[in-house]
Amino acid sequence: MIEISTSVLDVDEENSVQAFYNLETAKIDYFHIDVMDGIFVENNTLLKMKDFALKVHTIAMTPMDVHLMVKDPMSVVDYFIDQGADRITFHIEACENKEKVLEIINYLKENGVKVGIAVSPDTNIEEVYEYIPFVHMILVMSVVPGKGGQKFIESTIDKIKTLKKYCEDNNYEIDIEVDGGINDVTAKDVIEAGATILVPGRYVISADNYNDAIKKLRELE
User: Fold this and answer.
1) DSSP label at 16?
2) I need a surface site. Which of 92, 106, 153, 218 has the fewest CB within 10 A?
């Protein structure tokens, strides 16, 4: 069954508690927390997302799916571990070598967190293959990381298919999450390609009714 990890990037801070309550009652599967440091990507959402994670941890039962778009993942992971993150994803592009990738993977697992590795649009999907046996999820970016509301990159579909086939051929059971430009049109394509978790953002947050938007995505499966 497809899961919905809704990005709260575009949630207004003043109305965040009500928005989180409405998202939870819409029965999303995860709150997607987009953490940016202003270095790895241009935008800086670190303080906002720390605040959002604290609020979600305090008022919600729905788990958190934290996406780190930061140059130094180890500098921020402890905060989100402490806020009860169910899974934390970091970018392979933020790691200078294999040892660093494995260090982060091991640290997260030792702290009881599920691990994801994110791949930006310009990175070949094959670069994550050697880490698949050690992680729970690969996040395929379908937009350039760093800001919401971008147009879906069509070549992502082939990337998902390639990853899905590699996992099937090698008997790996992991989640494939797709983040960026997800709506009721692009979602159908990524599900057919092999995605198991969708990350809608503006499509849900700007909807008149969260329940209707989430329901429409689930009906595509």
Assistant:
1) H
2) 106
Band of the pLDDT at 82, cuts 50, 70, 90?
very high
Is 179 among the residues known to form the active site? yes
Q: How many CB atoms lie within 10 A of CB 109?
A: 14
End-to-end Cα distance, the chain: 8
Nearest to 179 by CA among 74, 67, 98: 67
| One-letter identity of residue 50 | K
Q: Is 40 helix (H, G, I), strand (E, B) or coil?
A: coil
Report residue 107 as tokens. Answer: 């640290």
Phi, psi of 202 (to 5 degrees): -60, -30
Residue entry with tokens 């440091």: 37
Catalytic residue among 37, 65, 175, 179: 179
- pLDDT tens-digit profile of 106-133? 999 999 999 999 999 999 999 999 999 9
- Considering just the CA atoms, what is the radius of gyration of the chain in Å? 16
Decide: 140 and 163 in contact? Cβ < 8 Å.
yes
Domains of the chain: 3-218 (3.20.20.70)
The residue annotated as part of the active site, out of 34, 65, 175, 189, is 34
Count Cβ atoms within 10 A of the Cβ of residue 158 and give its class: 0-12 exposed, 13-18 middle, 19 or more buried.
exposed
User: Is 143 within 8 Å of 121 (Cβ atoms)?
Assistant: yes
Active site residue 189: no
- Using a 10 angstrom Cβ sphere, with 0-12 exposed, 13-18 middle and 19 or more buried, the burial of residue 159 is buried
